[in-house]
Amino acid sequence: MRFKPGFLCLALLAGLALPGLADEGMWPYNNIPVRYLNQRYGWAPDQAWLDHVRLASVRFNSGGSGSFVSETGLVLTNHHVGAGCIQKISTPEHDYIKGGYFARSAAEEVKCPDLELNVLEGIEDVTSQVNADVKPAMADAQVLAVQKAAQAKLEKDCNEKTGLRCNTITLYSGGEYDLYKYKKYTDVRLVVAPEFGIAFFGGDPDNFTYPRWDIDFAIFRIYENDKPVRPRHYLKWNSAGPKENELVLVSGNPGSTARLDTLAQLEFDRDFRYPLQIEYLTRRAKLLHDFSDKGPENARMANRQLFGIENSLKGNRGREQALQDPKVMAKKAAEEGELKAKVASDPKLASHAGAWDAIAAAREAYARRYKRDTVRTRALASAPEMTNARTIVRYVAEKEKPNEKRLEEFRESSLKSLEFSLFSPAPIYPALEKVTIADSFKELVEKLGADDPFVQKVLEGKSPEERANELVEGTKLKDVAFRRELVAGGVKAVEESTDPMIVLARRTEPELREIRDWREVNVESVDKKSGALIARALFAVKGKERYPDATFTLRLAFGPAKGFVESGKPVGFQMTWDGMYTHSEEHGGKSPYDLPGSFLKARAVVHPKTPVNFVTTADTTGGNSGSPAVNQKGELVGLLFDGNIQSLGNDIVYTEDVARSVCVHTAAMMAALRHVYDAGAVADELEKPGMAQTGSGGSAAGNK
Question: Scanning 59, 608, 663, 672, which has the fewest C-beta atoms within 10 Å of its C-beta?
Fold first, then answer.
């Protein structure tokens, strides 16, 4: 992978003043701002350091990040990132979410049924290849089709040549395309998971807040050919952690941000997307709470889904609040107005001038059908068996098409990952499915009306509850062998199937494909073509001084471990072990502030000033959960698990005055392993000395 010198060099070449010194940015590994880091911190990573941290970083395809932390394949992430696996290996008799899990030997390391981890092996700029067949006179939809065909070919060729998972990533709203090449692991086994009560201590009330005292971690081990992987690179454990104001670097996979979105796109999100999403999440959270209140087994079944819903709800409310802030929108409007004015005054950029209006017109059209489209799509994806049915119906149809004409998720480069998920033996909870499907059908009736043709097609004259029961009780999709049989039988088997979930998916596929196709032709194609024009205008006017928006691909962020002032009161950069007990006692030890018994017993054993959580100004967002926080030597000093409430608006406009990323301190995880859980063997494995650091920027342990 080629190393780019970073945006400061480009800014200087363009004759621009340097941007303000702020640690903004989620930087791709082939575009790290080394000159900025040198100027601000008197240090910057060299290529050896970057390669080491990149190859030690891991993406959890379930929606988070992690890192190799031992020479025998141990991977560290957050409990909430690994919770899907933890729940799926649990049973009514053994709730490992609630009680934790600790493998005392290799034989007790339990395989996750559907967890895929990726390590980024390389990045290649393929912008010219993606746009090679694009012609100036093409309509937006034609451009998109040509680009998608090129992406499909690039991914297939890369996969066949390297054996890696290859994905083309759209950057700068279509201004650039990179090919990301991943080593894929699917034999992932659980080693350590603490109790939910300490991993999510303080529950939803404390979520997205600081101070915090969460020890939100889990440890897995990756296997290949039934043997632990010996990674080329892993992060050396440093229990000393960061000092106040010490530089911390975070390597992870931020999900999505909207900092380069146009004003029209942000207004659409504010007025349509977030209100509808928040309404749905509020409704679903209540439904899951009511379901959970009926008994401990119900609570176990719903735990993971409820956590995700409440986490998303709080996050979406924070982002909506940012978009409702007149100052935020005025700032975005001023930035856009400035760029548009410079484009209008430059004859060379004349063809770019209409890009903003094109995106605004597309959003105006989308707004007219957004609610109906969203409710219909959501209703038919409200349970695992529904999702499996839709996947099977599309799988057999897409396999009949040339690779370049398929939907992205069914391209040859993605099929193995899709099949791994589709054919996983993950447990399905019929009782929970009945409740969630019935409620989605109720919402369908409420939003569209009982006389709507689509509603009638879905319900077939029955009540939402009756139809949900009929679908769940009648389907065989819980059986992995049945799913495999349908796929192997192809279009004929699916067309002839009488399974009620398959029949429903088959009958409603025309409407759902129309929704997707309309959006691609009328929204996505416009966003890509016009977004690329805006990106090129931005580069022409200011130089490439900006990182792209987040895309759930590996990025490097950085900033000091630093406290903040909130409402005139200073908040320290780290919280200590004794504060955890005080916080619990201040709430009467009642849920969600009731500490697990293991921590109550260990109170006198662990030093009270052992650091638990700390904050940094490093620029992160959802998807960064589980990201390793490292020091200049490339050593692990923390584990990112959250941001404070002020950080949520950073998805739109970055600030570092109060916004912070929140990390678990390495000392807290080590104390838990050694003194709370008696997991000394795992602790020894983590603290085993690594190879000496080398390189001016600090390249790290592990074989080259």
Answer: 608
